Amino acid sequence: MPEPHESYKSFFDDAPLACFSIGVDGRILLANRRAHELLGYPPGELIGRPVIELYADTDAGKRRARQLFERFRNGRRIDGEELEMRARDGRSVWVSLASSPIRDRRGDVARSRSILVDVTARKRAEDDLRRARQRLEEQVAERTRELAASNEKLRQVERLASLGTLAAGIAHEINNPIGAILLLAANALESAGELGLDERCRQTLEKIIANCQRCHEIIRAVRQFAGLEPSTRELTDVNAVIRSAIDWTRGYARQHGAELRCELAPDLPPLLISPAEIEQVFVNLLRNAVEAGSSRIRVRSERTGGGVRAVVEDDGRGMSDEVASRLFDPFFTTRRHGGGSGLGMSISHGIVSAHDGTLRVASTPGRGTTITLELPGATRPEPT
Ligand SMILES: Nc1ncnc2c1ncn2[C@@H]1O[C@H](COP(=O)(O)OP(=O)(O)OP(=O)(O)O)[C@@H](O)[C@H]1O
Ligand SMILES: [Mg+2]
User: Which of 12, 56, 145, 214 could in theory staple to 61 by disulfide, Cβ–Cβ 3.0 to 4.6 A?
Assistant: First the structure.
C-alpha cells in the first residue's frame, strides 16, 4: 500500500474534499478524513473495503459503478460523473466523481486518485423541483380536463338554449293550424251522421284527432323545455306524485305486457316542487321503460337526509354507452319509427335541473336500465 509522505499526508487528510485511492482489485487503499465523514465511517474503516460496497445497492447504481471501475482499469479518466453512494447508516449520498489512473513503473494501472464532491443537496433540490414540476403538470392537466368538461357543458347549454328558442318559435307557429285541424275534425266527427260519413271516414277522423292531440302534447313539451310553460311549486309528497304517474301509465304498461311495481318509503319529507312537472318526469321514465320492452318495472323511493331519491328500474333491452351518453340530448331517439320525438329525457332533465336535482342513468344492454332521480330538500320553511 503506498504511504504518502508526512506533509503530503496531512495535506491529503485535511483536504476539504473527499479524496481516496483504489487499487486494481477494487479495494480502497487510501481515504482521507472527509471521505470517511462523507460516508459516515469512523477514521480508517474505509481502508481495505471493496469500493463497490459503497455504491447505491440498486441495479442501476451497481452497474454504473462496475462500468466506471472498468474505465479506471483501462487507464481512462473519469470526469465529474454523478453517482449515488450509500453511507454506512444507509443514507443516500450523491457525489460527483473525478478520478485519474496512477501507473506503476512498468506503465500499468496501479491505483486511482479519486476526488468526491458531495452534490446531495443539489440533487435533492433537483428532485424536489422535478416533483414540484410534475405536480404542477398534473394540476394543469387536471384543470385542463375540468375546463374541457365545463366547456362541453356550456356548449350543451348553449345548444339547448338556442334549440329551445327555435323550437318554441316553431311550436308557437304550428299550434294554431293544428288547433284548427283538430277543431274541424272534431266538428266533422260530431256531425258524421248529418254529413252521411261512413265508418271508414269516422275512423280516419278519429286518427286525425288523436294525431293532433299528440302534436299538442309535443308542442306543450317543447314549450316547457324552452321554459315557456308556467310552473308553480308547492310542498308536495313525492310518493303521491309517483302513484299518480303510475296510475297514468298502468294501462299503457299492461298493453305492452309490463308489470309496474312500487316500493315507496313512508317517511319522505315533503318537497317544494312542481307536482305536475315531476309527475311528467316519472311518466316519461315509466313510458321509456315500457317502450324498452321491459316485463317488470320497479319504482322505489327513499329519503336522503332532507331530500328524496327515486329509482326507476327496468329489465328491458337496456342501452349502449353511445345511447346513454346522448340520452339527454333533445331530439335524440332510437324510436323515430315508433313515434318517439326524443324529447322525453331532455325535458325530464331540464325539469329536474330546474329543481336543483340530478338524473343519473346506469344501463346494461340486454339486461335493463336504472334511472336515479335525486331531489334536494325544500329550501323554503314549511308553512305553519
Ligand atoms: N329505460 C330505457 N331503456 C332503454 N333505452 C332507453 C330507456 N330510456 C330511454 N332510452 C333510450 O333513450 C332514447 C331517448 O329517450 P327519450 O325519452 O328522450 O326519447 P324517446 O322515448 O325516444 O321519445 P319521446 O320520449 O319523446 O316519446 C330512447 O329513444 C331510447 O333509445
Ligand atoms: Mg321517452
Answer: 56
Q: What is the C-alpha separation between 205 and 169, in angstroms, rounded?
A: 28
Cα–Cα distance, 58 to 66 (Å, whole number): 12
pLDDT the model gives residue 277: 87
CA angle 132, 137, 139 (to 5 degrees): 95
**The CATH fold of domain 234-375:** Heat Shock Protein 90 (3.30.565)
Q: What confidence score (pLDDT) does residue 384 get?
A: 45
pLDDT at 276: 84
Q: Which ligand 1 atom sits nearest the alpha carbon of residue 221? A: 26
Ligand 1 centre from 57 Cα, in Å?
63
Per CATH, the homologous superfamily of domain 6-118 is PAS domain (3.30.450.20)
Tell me if 6-118 shares its fold with 234-375: no
CB 285 within 8 A of CB 348: yes
List, run by run, the mean pLDDT of 10-residue segments along the chain (384 residues). Answer: 62 86 94 94 94 85 88 92 91 93 93 93 92 95 90 74 74 85 92 90 92 82 68 91 92 94 95 90 95 97 95 97 91 85 87 92 97 86 47
Q: Is 312 in the pocket of ligand 1 (CB under 6 A)?
A: no
Q: Which residues of 40-63 are buried (b: 16+ CB within 10 A; e: fewer)?
A: ebeeeebeebebeebbbeeeebee
Nine-digit cell string for 126: 433537483
For residue 250, report the distance from its CA to the centre of ligand 1, in Å: 18
Report whether residue 333 contacts ligand 1, using a CB cutoff of 6 Å.
yes
